[in-house]
């Protein structure tokens, strides 16, 4: 509720304007015939708006306006007067008034003026909150983000931004490749918002308009064949909470129009009903592509801009390389507990994963580690399973940059053992051609033949 102070020496006008404000919306008005109140900054500070008459006994409206703007400049002032003069209006706007209304006050003009004023104030308050959160460089409630394991600065910045925008009711668009954790981020946003309602998640990819409408908005009895009873939609289920719509880029045109109307008016119609319902759910959506590609595909521009009032971009796992060993360790511990195997992996094996590109992101990493843990239970080493799972090109990079002799043998071999292994694999690689094998290991054919004979004698 917005608090408004009206100062005027006409008590009948004060009461009439107070009634008008009460009828217009969520406004509480206090009335005063005392212009001296304008000079008491501690009292003015408690109001969201002051409405001020010009023609009053001392102090007059000009003196009151100057006193308010000097002591409490953040409180807007609207001049309300019977004097209909363009020159006077311009003068008072120049002195700091937000607007200038003439008596008798037009109800529609007053409504539009207040809506514009408080919309601007809300944006300023939100911007101030976001700025303060980002400048603090720390979270007020870090436990809301416990499900997202990271030490990556871009992700930590996303946490701070998410916490800053969480208390607002405006839509949020989360962008990121498949498997980057968009749904977990949406859930963290809901936790940070403090909203009392439920968090509801729904994947809207691939569903036609009728299913979309019924899922979100519900239906009344008799809306279609088989609709033998009333069904509430997920928008109602998420009342005073959050609804997360995943893969929003796949929505059909008709569904996009309905979602746009919901965002514009805050109202929706259950299937088969002519009575609008009010939505109190905060809407968070997600796409797995860059917005430019979404718009090129034909997604409605007006809907996109509504959905992306706030936007969070989640980096792919390949850009969070320092997080990969930590995530792999977490997934392995969970799998080891479920499979009842010792939770004692070679930590260096997890470090090898940082050289892989992970096109499937965190979801792919989790799948690889869970399968590796299972294979380990039946006798295959963790390292061997991971190597088999990864792309050959990437494995070459892993071996070049990260793999050590000890990782191959399981121990640090002697020079003789390492040489024997090198000769053996060179022969296997060349189908037992001594000439080609010698070239691979960088020896003359005679020298290679001597080493091969020594190996055979052992």
Task: Tell me about this structure.
The strands form four sheets. Strands 2-1-3-4-5 form a five-stranded parallel β-sheet, with helices on both faces. A five-stranded parallel β-sheet has the order 7-10-13-6-14. It contains 21 helices and 14 strands. By secondary structure, the protein is an alpha/beta fold. Helices cover 50% and strands 12% of the residues. α4 links the parallel β4 and β5. The chain folds into four domains: 120 residues, Response regulator (Rossmann fold, 3-Layer(aba) Sandwich); 175 residues, Rossmann fold (3-Layer(aba) Sandwich), CATH 3.40.50; 91 residues, Helicase, Ruva Protein, domain 3 (Orthogonal Bundle), CATH 1.10.8.60; 43 residues. About 2% of the residues have low confidence.
